Amino acid sequence: MHYATALDDTDVAGEAIVGAGTQSFDLRNTANRIDESNVTAGVHFQLARCSTLRVATALPLRTGDNRWFDKEVLVQLSRRF
Q: Where are the domains of the chain?
């Protein structure tokens, strides 16, 4: 299980001087905060004396702006000499 959150609200970068007047704009994360939750699982296989195979996946538990990806899959084959 993995959980990540923002420690504070986002900052706003705001005014620009355009010509004789001041133009306001808003540069920030519109969601303001991030709360991300993922679950990760995997298995480790000993194939031979010098070889291992690892297969793992990560799945997000949240939706909307707090979901950064659909899924991740890892396959790793190691051979020691």
A: 2-79
